[in-house]
Amino acid sequence: MFRFIVRRLLQLIPTLFGLSLLLFIWLRRLPGGPETAILGERGTPEMRAAIRRNLGLDEPILIQYGRFVRRLIKLDLGTSTSTKRPVVTEFFERFPGTVELTVMAMIIAIGIGIPLGYLAARRRGRLFDHLSVGGSLIGICIPVFFLAYVLKALFSENLGWFPSSGRQDPTLGATRITNFFVLDGLMTREWDAAADALWHLVLPGLALASIPLAIIVRITRASVLEVLNEDFVRTAEAKGLTESTVRRRHVLRNAMLPVVTSIGLLTGGLLSGAVLTETVFAFSGIGAFVAEAISQRDYPVLMGFILIIAVVYVLVNLLVDLSYSVIDPRVRVR
Amino acid sequence: MALLEVDDLSVTFARRGQRTVHAVDGVSFSVDAGEVVGLVGESGCGKSVTSLAIMGLLPRQPGLRVGGRAVFDGTDLLQLDDRSRRDIRGRDVAMIFQDPLSSLNPVIPIGLQVTEVLTRHRGMKGEAAQKEAADLLDRVGIPDPRRRLKEYPHQLSGGMRQRALIAMAVACQPRLLIADEPTTALDVTIQAQILELLKELVRDSGTALVMITHDLGVVAGMCDTINVLYAGRVVETARRRPLFREPRHPYTVGLLGSVPRLDAGRGERLNPIPGSVRDVLAWPDGCAFAPRCTRRIDECVGAPPELTLTYDGRSYRCVNPPPVPGTPPPAATDAGAPEPATGGPVPAPREEEKP
């Protein structure tokens, strides 16, 4: 198992190497070159030449690439052209927020989706089944930002149950260590800070969970229906096992394989694209920041973002593979 | 009294907008304690559905109706609630299925699949259950049982898997064992071993066995009493020797005739039953086998043939049965009836009865 993890992590290296090449080419091929990206349309030829010299763009291409890779290895992603701060610093402040939000959304989606899908399959063709399948269709159809506004208007502005924006109440003066606010609160034993951060996650988490929830309900339902027809479930019934044993040990465990795969893919998607939800709840995660970077042509930020998402996808896939091998001995890794 | 008395069992599947399917249509048979009873017939004749109905294992679906009675040791299994049925299943009545690979849960070890029966019905846990499971695997002829307990179904061979399934079925020393085509998915040498194992287990423990099969060789080697099913009904019931010696239903004659024989002359053709199991007459309209029968007469169509009981306790459902060798055929029924398809003498069973 350990060797498998190490091997998969080593596989990250060629992936990232290929990605760096793509990014390098992308930066060189920008319309008007990087200097235009920095200067915009207004620069004079003299200014462009100065910037090219500053960036080392007048040197041979291989040397440029070498320098580019060396900076990547040192985690130097350059400076954001819009905020004038190092890209790494910006990400360190914002990415943990998105991760927390994604984890929250997936906990909601999995926690509700799997039981709902299972029950729908058991009550196939009855009212409960129709309601959850129909409900999941609505969940897929409703635009996330719209749902976010509705949740915000209802639960925070009208009922006042949840905060309407931000990641934490700034007046708490919570200590920052990892920038995962919930984790920080737990580590420093500032329980109120952790609870407050968690509370801030509920509404955006719900909004973000809607689509994964709907997908998980459907996949679980389909998968359980398939497993219920399997011969080994009949064998389990023939042994006279109680219904709950048959359900837990024989049905659910086998039905989880396709669900785990989709959870992996959905998590990766959420991490890279929670833009609208973060905007609605003024949640300082990575989504809104990157959306801004796109409109500002902030290339260093975009480049860093692409790299981070690539790493995240590989890690999430690793997790999926590991849970696969825990569930199914036939694909167990050695 | 018989251990299991199945009486007028019927299973129908009704689908909206489609004709109701009578998968099992008034099947009656009985199994005495320690007896080996065969249910024989082509695929689709309702033999598996019969066994699943007795076990209460038919997939729950709208339109499914089970009628009749299946009295096991004084209780009608069909009237039991889900809870009491689960108590009986695996403990008093156990079942072995056709395809050992798909009948085992692929993601949990063999050991747990054996011990869960012991835990459920015999309250065994921990090391005691492990030890008993190992003993069971040993009893069904799985070498190195301790190691096998930790393995998963995909790591076992086909024969081993079926042995493991048998171990699970006999774990609580059931009084009745239903084996639904237990050897169909296995290759021939393994088939013989598994049959031998079943015979041994049944003999040693006094368990009654219902053997469901399409293979007359299996029937010949094992069963005391044989029920031949066609289109959801029992068309002939007899002890083994009389059935093989002088089958009274043309379908049984056809089944026996279609068994390939080693002592047949070179180049001699096999004798299949003409037509297919799809050419079935609805029972209320007459004998379901009539469209394929070579002994068909006018009386076959119109009303279902009544069950004829004979002096030696056998019964059959035919208005124009083949003549018993040695007795002159009654002239009235033979007139106008074509010659039986098999023509020659009935083949001997593949395996001879042991005294």
From TrEMBL, chain A:
Transmembrane feature ranges: 9-27, 101-121, 133-155, 197-217, 257-290, 302-324
Pfam family, one: BPD_transp_1_N
Record-linked CDD domains: TM_PBP2
Main location group: membrane
Domain ABC transmembrane type-1 as annotated: residue spans: 95-324
Domain of life: Bacteria
Localization in the cell: Cell membrane
Record's protein name: Peptide ABC transporter permease
Organism of provenance: Micromonospora haikouensis
UniProtKB/TrEMBL annotation, chain B:
Protein source organism: Micromonospora haikouensis
One GO CC term on file: plasma membrane
Membrane-topology descriptor: Peripheral membrane protein
All residue ranges annotated as the ABC transporter domain in the record: 4-256
GO molecular-function terms, A-Z: ATP binding; ATP hydrolysis activity
Keyword Amino-acid biosynthesis annotated: no
Main localization of the protein described in the UniProt heading: membrane
Pfam families, per database record: ABC_tran, oligo_HPY
Biased composition (Low complexity): 332-345
Gene3D superfamilies recorded: P-loop containing nucleotide triphosphate hydrolases (3.40.50.300)
Keywords annotated in UniProt: ATP-binding, Cell membrane, Membrane, Nucleotide-binding, Transport
Family from the record: Belongs to the ABC transporter superfamily.
Name of the molecule in the record: Peptide/nickel transport system ATP-binding protein
Keyword Nucleotide-binding included in the entry's annotation: yes
Subcellular location: Cell membrane
Amino acid composition bias (Pro residues), ranges on this chain: 320-331
Biological processes per GO annotation: peptide transport
Chain intervals for the UniProt region annotation (Disordered): 314-355
Top-level taxon in the UniProt lineage: Bacteria
InterPro entries reported for this sequence: AAA+_ATPase, ABC_Ni/Peptide_Import, ABC_transporter-like_ATP-bd, ABC_transporter-like_CS, Oligopep_ABC_C, P-loop_NTPase
